[in-house]
Give the backbone structure.
Amino acid sequence: MTRLVRLYPRAWRDRYEEEFLALLAERPPTLGDLADTIRGAVDAHLNPQGEVEPSPWTHRLPGLLALIAGAMWSAVVLAFVFWQDGGWAVAVLIPASLFLMFLSLPGDYMAAHGRHIAAVVGVIGLCIVVANLPYSVATVVTGVGGYLIALGGMLTLAAIRADIGPAARWLLLVLAVIVPAAIGFPVAMGLGNLTENETWVLVSALPYGLAWVLVGLRLAIRGSATLTDLPTSPIEPEVGAA
Amino acid sequence: MSGQRFGRFGETAMWILVALRDGPHNVVPLLDEVRALDGRVGPGTLYGAVARLERLGLIEPTTNGDGRQAYRLSEQRGGVPS
């Protein structure tokens, strides 16, 4: 229950966390209190009180992008699995949702963690090169493995940006990337020859989209600076200036 | 008390003011008293109301004799300082 306090914005926690936890210690919360705390956290993000100015609407954009990308990915996977039609949608909308996921990463985060994003771009580029090499087990393993690293990397970066803790990030990574990969990889080795009975394996791609929906939702609620309003760095005083 | 400012926290905020009329309250007794007046109020709702009241300058934090966090009506609203 006490972990739910982390759902509140930083400014709120700085002001009320200690006394809030003391209250929970003295009045053990019920399930209703748990739901009430979650509602309170959502309200604290949407209607921040105190001295902090409400963040501009543009700060919701990265989260909304991530949310839309995750929803698009999930919808395409479900449509393909259930109707086994719309290969064009997979070919167009999956890359489009990947592009949106990538777009949701920049902003202040790019300024602070540019090298990580550069690494993701590098891995994606390498995968494209490897995947286009002549077919062999090695190229498929490297290509698929590289894509998984890139997908996991993007999701992890977004989760860090959404201020999701390390334990939850790992859980997200395992459930949305590693386990689905373990299920889908054997089939992915012969991806071009999926029969109708094997398309269910593609359901394993669904958790990735759902993970982005969750991360996007949290990011949209919390808000995050965008490239249009990066915080300005304080000017360092010149040492030794006369 | 503006409904637009308080939203769903309006009623709880009102009961907090009523409870604090008798003097400063620690957080736990405050929750108990508001629950006695307003029914089942959760900690999230209590603090949603407290944050709004504090922002509007209607209540202010203080400490009781035991050094624990408490709230009282702010002096500018006619509250009696402890």
In short: Chain B has a mean pLDDT of 81. Chain B has one domain: 3-75.
